[in-house]
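Below is how a single chain appears once it has passed through the pipeline. First comes the sequence as given, then the structure the pipeline wrote out for it. We keep one example in the README because the format questions we get most often are answered faster by looking than by reading.
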Amino acid sequence: MEKTKKRNVIVGQSGGPTAAINSSLAGVYRTAKDRGYNKVYGMLHGIQGFMEGRYIDLSEHIKTGLDEELLKRTPSAYLGTCRYKLPDIYEDKALYEELFKTLDELEIDCFIYIGGNDSMDTIKKLSDYAIVTGSDIRFVGCPKTIDNDLALTDHTPGYGSAAKYIGTSVKEIIRDGWSLETLHGQILIVEIMGRDAGWLTGASVLSRGEDCDGPDAIYLPEIDFDINEFVNKCRGLLENKASVVIAVSEGIHLADGTYVSELGNVIEYVDAFGHKQLTGTARYLCEILSEQIGCKTRAIELSTLQRAASHCASRIDILEAFEVGGAAMKAADEGDSGKMVVIERTSDDPYQASTSVKDVHKIANDEKLVPREWINEEGTYVTNEFITYVKPLIQGDVAPIMVDGIPRHLYVPGYQELL
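Resulting structure:
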C-alpha cells in the first residue's frame, strides 16, 4: 500500500554562495507549489541551522511573481548557508534521530539541498539513514558551485555567471594596465578562486577577443607550479610588453603540494571539511617579482566579488539554475532519493542541454578537474577546447530590477531576529 504523502517540502542552501543559487531556490519553490505542496520550508543557514530549529515558511516571504523574479536576481544565499559536516550515520545516532524527528513533525515529504561537493555528502548521509530506518522522506541534491567541480554534471549553476564576471573584470584590468605608462614595466597578478580545480581561473581567457589580447599567462592548480619558471616567464614577457597581466588560481601549489599562498602566510583557519583558507597567492608572487625583476607589481584579488556579482549574471546560468531547482523538486516528488540533478550537454553550437538525475554516492566527495588536454603543454594557458566549453555558459544578460539607481534584492524581513 502506497504511503500517504504529507505534502510539505524543506529546502536549504549550503557552501559558498553564487549569483544563481537563489534562482535554484525559486525553481524549487515554484515547482513545489505547482505540484500542490502545502508548505515549503526554508532552512536558515543550511542543515546546521535546521538542527538548531531555525527555519521559515517561504510562503510567508515569497508572495508574488515579482518576489520570485527578485529572488532570481538576488546574489548570495537568501536563506543563508553553512559549512557543516554531518558525522557518519553510525557515529552519532542521536543526532540523526533528532533530525528526522523534526522532519516528521513538520510532515516533510521532500528534502532538497542546494550546494556543491560537501552538500552532496549531506544528501548521501541523510538518504542512507532514511534507507536504514525505513523513512519515506526523499532526499535530492541540487547542484551549485562557482568552482564547477562536481562530478557527472557537464557544469554547475553559478559557474557561468562567475566566469562571465571574471572574463569581464580581467578585460577591464588589462585595459586599465595598458593605459598606464610605466618606465620599467609592470605586472598585474589577478588571484581567482579555485582550490584544486582551475575552471574559474581558466575563464579569464574569455577576456580575449578582437579588442583585447587576454591575459598573458594563466596558471591553474591542476599543474604543479614552479616559481623559478614563473619568474623567467614574467621576465620574458616584460621584454615585449610594458604591462603584463597574469591570472592565477588561489590554489596553485608546488610539486610537494605546498600552496603558494602558504609561502607568504601562516594559514590558521580550517573549515569543517579540512579546507585551509587560501589567500595571498598574488601578493606573494608580486613580492617575488619585485625582488627578482625590480618591476612595478600589483596584486588583485577578485575574492567574493566573483560569486556575488548578480549585475553581471549570465542569462543561461540563471535559467539553468531555475531549471535544476525545479528538476530536483520534480525528482523528489516522483520518488527519487539519494540522487542529484545533473546537466547534460548535447551541443556546443547551438548550445543545448537537458537535465537528469544521478546517484549522489558517485558525486559526493569527488572532484572534477580541468582536463590536462585543455591546458597547454607548458602549463601556462588554456586551450581552445576550454574556450569552446565555457563560452556558451556566459551568454545573455539578466537585467537587475533597479530602484534609485541600485539593484533591488529580496531579503527576509527580521532575518537577524530569526537567528
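The CA atoms of residues 71 and 372 lie 38 Å apart.

See the next section for the split statistics.
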